[in-house]
Amino acid sequence: MSSNGSASASYVRRDECVRIAGGNVDDAPGLLASIVGIGAHNSQSSLSTQSKFLMSEVEEIMILDSNMNTVAVHNKISHPRYSVKKSADQMREELLRKRNDLQRRHDGQSQALLKKHEEERSSVENHSNFTDEEMEYILMNVMEPMHQKQLRLMKERHQKEQAALMDLMFRSAFAADGGSQASSKSDEDKKMPGVSPTSSKSDEDRKMPHKKPDRKEPPENLSSRTSVSSELGTIEESSYATSSVDGTTVDDSSIGSSVSSNNNRSTPLSPVPESPNPDASQPIYRAIQEVKLNNPEFQFVDLDGQDMVPKKLWKNLFQAFETNQYVNQISLRDCGLTDEKIVPLLLSLVQNDSLLAINLSMNPEITDETGRLLIKVLNGRDERIYDIDLSETGISDQMKADIEGILMKRISVDVL
């Protein structure tokens, strides 16, 4: 059997199969190949009758002689699709870890800066050389605007960092699905207004013009002094050096501005590069990414008012609910949804086991066609949903009553 020992196995990409070659295979009717695959893809075949084994995913191949002794082992043969899937899963875990680390770092930076501001205010309040009028002026007209600016600049930087990471997560997840979704964005996508990945409210705050406080003249005694900083000894450039809270380092030179000891002017913030893909910060992209990642902390999808979302993105989101195990509420109020757009969501309810409440109100183009399909789903596979808001839709009152009756029975059973 020495000649048989040279038999080898290899994966043939073109044919998507495992081919056994060498070792005078046809002359050794007792030689067997044991192929260990993923799941139930295990098999044994005689090399005399078959030298090619179609397998979707292969972990290991053992070539055995007639006495079942191992002649050769090949344990590094795997189907490319399996390798890609494994790499994609590892990438998702790594990106999710990076996102959590980024959030913790941002929280630490915010706490450190707020603590620093509190210490500076206390320093002014405890300074015996200032009158009440002078102290009020310093707190309200010098320190407060400076602190607000630092907080605003830090918040903007955090939002850009989060948007950049969300873009990376979005592109990585879609690339793992085949890359079709991430290949290009339509012009309609690009017209959608950018929204912060943290919340729509934070984006509104960022866009609102920051009103400058009315300039108040300093008290006469205070204005005659050479410098407020020299009196305090704390509100100066050195006080904004790198600080640390709970092991989180904060470099204030990059998140805010320091007060000069000569003229109370602030140094400009270093420019922060724009997100590679601002569209990825929109709520719909964040929702798709979080649902696909199956993040346990992401349980409420709120997309109220998102009426410019393309049909393909709604489909991507709704199909992701088929495998998600943690989202329990969806709010799609006034999103311009139609019977055609909503079908993937209803179909996903057949597989989903976590959704409890759905808000579809103020979508007038959702009609009885959706209502009939919804009733079939509720009477069939889905047994968990107990609240569906269909107010101000095109569904008839009678059908709304029928759906409400199904849901009320579930609530009654839960109460009992």
From TrEMBL:
Classification via InterPro entries: LRR_dom_sf
Compositional bias ranges of the Basic and acidic residues kind: 115-124
Region (Disordered): 100-129, 178-281
Residue ranges with Low complexity bias: 242-267
Segments of skewed composition (Polar residues): 221-241
Domain of life: Eukaryota
Record's protein name: Uncharacterized protein
Organism whose genome encodes this protein: Cyclotella atomus
